[in-house]
Queue: 2 jobs
Job 1
Amino acid sequence: FCYNEHHCDPYAWGDTFPSCHPLLEEHHSPINLDYQMSRNESLGALHLEGFDTVQTGHWTLKNNGHSVVLQVGSGMSVSGGGLPGVYHTIQLHFHWGSLSTNGSEHTVDRRRYPMEMHIVNMKSIHPNVSAALEDPTGLAVLGFFVDVVYADNVHLGHITRKLSSVAYKGWKNTNNPTWLLLPEHNMSQYYRYHGSLTTPPCSPVVIWTLYEVPIYASWSQLEQFASEMYSTEEGEEDEKPLHNNFRHIHPTFSRSVYASRDAKLLLGRAAPPLSSALPTHVFQITLLGGLIYGL
Ligand SMILES: [Zn+2]
């Protein structure tokens, strides 16, 4: 599969991977996150085990032709926050755009962030990923939007410094583990829904947790992802850049999307409901207030 060529791009995945076909399965990811969600007071912060300590063991950074993947060692897990069990962390990877386009997979109120990081976790009762893909809640993915600021993110730097060593498909390198990538605060603000893998086989087995508060990267760090990576192997005649590696947005259909107890962004910003009981002039003031606030 691929992202940027007509014959194998995300719209064609269903030809080769039946479960990627949008008409056969109604649990596809990514989706747009908008005001059409309800708050679930029982969704508190997830419990992240081993994320704040320096892990030992073999961590591998790899270009698999579709993304840059950081395979992690054992010792990290995710639970709580409404997850049905303990999930072991297996890898993290990124989705990005190009030098002129944003490339997050999920969108927030139709806005696409520059990048998105996925931390993939597998339910601990399963011996391997193929077993987890048979369980409707076999995987839990934590999604973090990445926004661009002026300063380098030193923690992300542990990965971006090594990008040139995994420039081509199949290239690997060891990596120094760092979990300080995650935000220190606001980890209880997130959105939750049931969806799928965003890459083939698109299995509808993912409990998604998308954090409201983005992590940060500098423009030059983003540029390294967008312009230094290749989806082809070294020496291939037809060298192809690895960029715009995000799947298109899918309808939520009848699925529920929940805001966690502390989520602020979308529900906090929602317009007040129209009410005929409200005198017109009050409404105009409210709208004007909104405009001023917006400036
Ligand atoms: Zn992903």
Note: Confidence is low (pLDDT under 50) at residues 270-295.
Job 2
Amino acid sequence: MTYRPAADRYSRMIYRKCGTSGLKLPAISLGLWHNFGHDTPHQVKRDICRTAFDHGITHFDLANNYGPPPGSAEEAFGEILKTDFAGHRDELIISSKAGYLMWDGPYGEWGSRKYVIASCDQSLKRMGLDYVDIFYSHRFDPETPLEETMMALDHIVRSGRALYVGISSYNSARTREAAAILKELGTPCLIHQPSYNILNRWVERDGLKETLTELGIGSIAFTPLAQGILTGKYLNGIPEGSRAVQGKSLDPATITPRAIESVRALNAIAARRGQTLAQMAIAWVLRDGGITTALIGASRPEQVVDCVGAIGNLDFTAAELAEIDAVAAEEDINLWARSSAE
Ligand SMILES: NC(=O)c1ccc[n+]([C@@H]2O[C@H](COP(=O)([O-])OP(=O)(O)OC[C@H]3O[C@@H](n4cnc5c(N)ncnc54)[C@H](OP(=O)(O)O)[C@@H]3O)[C@@H](O)[C@H]2O)c1
């Protein structure tokens, strides 16, 4: 049956300005890192994307290497664009990235002009698009002059391959340098994509939020649910089918008894707020407007619906915030620390 998006979708979401740009993003965005490779039936991917769009999620985040195999998430999303989302391209903000290993040899990863532009072309081809809305440098490359990577991003915009550019997992100092180069080139940095959640607060220690506000750059926080740890699912052990049993990015050893104790206490605070833990974790990332949008992942459409419910209560009392700080210590879960340490 032909999919028709929910007529009331735009009243189900709130949209926030991305930094000082004219672009608004949904408070919750959907990422296709997991559950969009060949190991997931195509119908599940379609259902997740349809549910997201039905709830006003207009922003879909990809990268060259999402799969498995690398590239397959972009191919799957390209199919969805041709079928379910046909006729809706101008309602969507689609992003992709280059930075991590994509193909063999010296030109298949990091930040050279050679790699970044070739990878962008490959992403466009896989998705069947003329342009992406946002193209990112996925990680800081200590061996390539920052000017070269930023000039590649500028070229990608000037040549019509992307409308805006962003950077991911760059620390405050590198963000300032990158933003200054981009400004000089005439292509402003629209957005920064850092990992951020209650159990991973490097952006606060780094001062990144303040830097982005000062520079007028928007932000999209990835892994707001700590890959699922900040939900109720691991409270009674590791369930079948969950990300922690898939041998991918979530090492079960990181779900320590201490982390579970924190999650149990956070769950109780969420219940008092009338939220699920996933909803409270997303609201926490979005609190006080410092982050533009929370970038979630989902393995089922029902998870998207639950997460979107977060927008029902984005406010915290000072007492709630203090209690969250008191019960939840940081955990060693930041897989992207190397990029922001350079
Ligand atoms: N820039 C970067 O370097 C970078 C790195 C990583 C991610 N990202 C982006 O961020 C996106 C999100 O990352 P993520 O998937 O790790 O984020 P996440 O939202 O922290 O975790 C998503 C996982 O949590 C579980 N979940 C989601 N909603 C739930 C709910 N309501 N109730 C119970 N469980 C729920 C699901 O796990 P189960 O599979 O266990 O059901 C889901 O796959 C990625 O898709 C990607 O676009 C960017």
Note: The mean pLDDT is 97.
